[in-house]
């Protein structure tokens, strides 16, 4: 059957809601048009750092390089103004609003709900320590689970809750099945979702 062609039977099933309509496949002309558009908008200087731009001064027009250098300096200034954390912050229930709800705008807050007696919690705490050092623009926090949420069940320890702009972004309760149980490690299981 030709690409993108449906049978009469399939058309009837779609009409009555039994099947979902197939997504229209792109034609070669549409794909070619997109590729040409991407190539026309490609700018080889855009992703260069300041040192690479200085090396290109002999090859490129000085005005073009000056514009890119200014743009890159502005990006670096904005990056320098972003809040940085670099370590795991332990807080209490009464600090929740300050630490999570009132966190800086567009900062992800990753909370670890833990218990000291839990081996998985201790492993996750060490992982959080490594991640906090690596991802300094993410706010990593931890709190004793039943101090944060009354009647928090032991079977749900450890838990991970991610917030952005004071709102719940994602939660993993319990976190161990998602992140590999006792075999959790930050390299293979924590490229955040």
Radius of gyration: 25 Å
Query: What ranges have pLDDT less than 50 throughout 5 or more consecutive residues?
Result: none
Strand percentage, roughly?
A: 5-15%
Would you report the number of β strands?
5
Q: H/E order of the elements? A: HHHHEHEHEHEEHH
Summarize the structure.
This protein is an alpha/beta fold.
Overview of this protein structure:
The chain is built from 9 helices and 5 strands, in the order ααααβαβαβαββαα. It has 3 domains: 8-40, no CATH class; 50-81, no CATH class; 88-189, Glutaredoxin. Strands 1-3-2-4-5 form a 5-stranded mixed beta sheet. By secondary structure, it is α/β, with parallel strands linked by helices. The chain starts with 7 loop residues before the first helix and ends with a helix.
What is the fold's blueprint, element by element?
Blueprint: H1 8-15, H2 28-41, H3 50-55, H4 62-81, E1 88-90, H5 96-101, E2 108-114, H6 119-134, E3 139-144, H7 145-148, E4 159-164, E5 167-172, H8 176-179, H9 186-189
Parallel strand pairs: 1-3, 2-3
Antiparallel strand pairs: 2-4, 4-5
Summary keywords:
Glutaredoxin, 9 helices, flat, five-stranded mixed beta sheet, alpha/beta, 193 residues, single chain
